[in-house]
Amino acid sequence: MSRLAVRLSAGILAVIVLSAVIGQCAGERHIRNTAQERARHMSRAFVPLAQDLDSVDRSQRAARLEQRKALFGESLVLLEIPDIDADEGALDELRSGRACVLDGGSESGPRLALPLADGTQALVVGPFERMPHPGWGTLLVLVLLTTLGAVIAGALLAYPVVRRLAVLERAAARIHDGDLSARVKMSAKSDFGSLAETFNAMAARLEYLLETQRQLLQAVSHEFRTPIARLRFGLESLARSDDPDDLVARLDAMDGDLAELDEMVEELLLYARIDAGALPLRREAVEVLELLGDLCEKAEELSPHLHFRILADEDANPVLRADATSLRRAIRNLLNNAAAHARAEVSVSVEVLTEKAQQVEASLRSKSKRGGEVLVLRVDDDGDGVPSSHRERIFEPFARLDESRSRSSGGVGLGLAIVSRVLQSHGARVSVADAPSGGARFEIRWPMEALGERDAAADER
């Protein structure tokens, strides 16, 4: 941080010195131009004198000029044009009968030359005095004083910047050393408040990703241990058994273990892609009731002891603009979750809320109107439900409940986390409450812009 302060001070010093040099050069030029302009204006006063000299014989001009000098406060001299100390351009102007201002350079001020009518002589007036200008010594003192003041002011201005950057640097160093809880404590109203908030958000995101990775490794190692142990036991049993029927049963069990492992890997990879934002969404028209019917039919095949019901008005079949693959996976996870904890029945209901229905629902809940949520899908089971203290945590990755919804139900603990992430990517939201049957109710709400039109080509098919 000290190097930053040195650079700021050096930059201020360089700007001041450069400004002083430019100012000195510009000042001298301005003074020279001002003197020349003054000489041009004064030329009008000496035109009558030049005309008076023209009116007398050449031999009498010097005497006439001596008589007139007392009337003017300037130095007057009558010179032959070739004898005038000036460049050829000025001499040519005098020969052609035009008055000109002769620059005296840095040693003396400008002079005014008025040619006489015969074109051989010219009346030279001056030199005119320049405006006083400080020398380089005075200018150097001023520059030093100004520089000292500027350096002090720059240091005062740079100190808060350097101090806040040092806070950011220390927090970054702590994160580099492995302390992912490091945060920058800085007022949001300060100059670096926005930068501090962005830094803290980055640090929190980094801590979350690494913690998720750690949990993922722990979950994988734990969840894979059980099917792998069963596979090893099955292989050992195969080596000892000669009964064909027992061999078939063992192979079927091992195939089930492999299917479980495959499902775990698929779920882990899907969650990793969603969490990294690498899951592309290909939105298309999805008929909700058709999708639910297909998923409920397959869920009932896997859980024949349960009855799956769909409660909806078939005449008002809603259509969603959504990614069919990820949406199917999210709803399938909800049905699998319900099936894992239901006793006898799982019901799925679809409702399209009109604006009036939304107002009534909001008034019943003593909440303000939440406009725009028009499509509601509910999945109810008749299990033990979800305690209110766990209803927010249940959608976190690797979350487990200590009651009926526990590790005995299987899975890696990513099913509901995948549901939440997929629905968030579609602009929907999911929540859990008590079902009328006493179990859990998972409710999904889609905004108005998610609704689409039924595909005409699909209707024709």
Q: How would you describe this structure to a colleague?
A:
With 461 residues, this protein is α+β, with helices and mostly antiparallel strands. 54% of the residues lie in helices and 14% in strands. The chain is built from eleven helices and eleven strands. It has helices at residues 2-54, 61-68, 88-95, 136-176, 193-240, 244-275, 288-302, 324-341, 355-364, 415-425, 456-460, and strands spanning 76-80, 100-102, 111-115, 121-125, 283-287, 307-311, 319-323, 345-352, 373-381, 429-434, 440-447. The chain has a five-stranded mixed sheet with strand order 6-8-9-11-10, covered by helices on one side. Strands 1-4-3-2 form a four-stranded antiparallel sheet, with helices on both faces. The chain is rod-shaped. The two termini are 71 Å apart. The model is unreliable at 356-360, 363-371, 402-409 and 456-461 (pLDDT under 50).
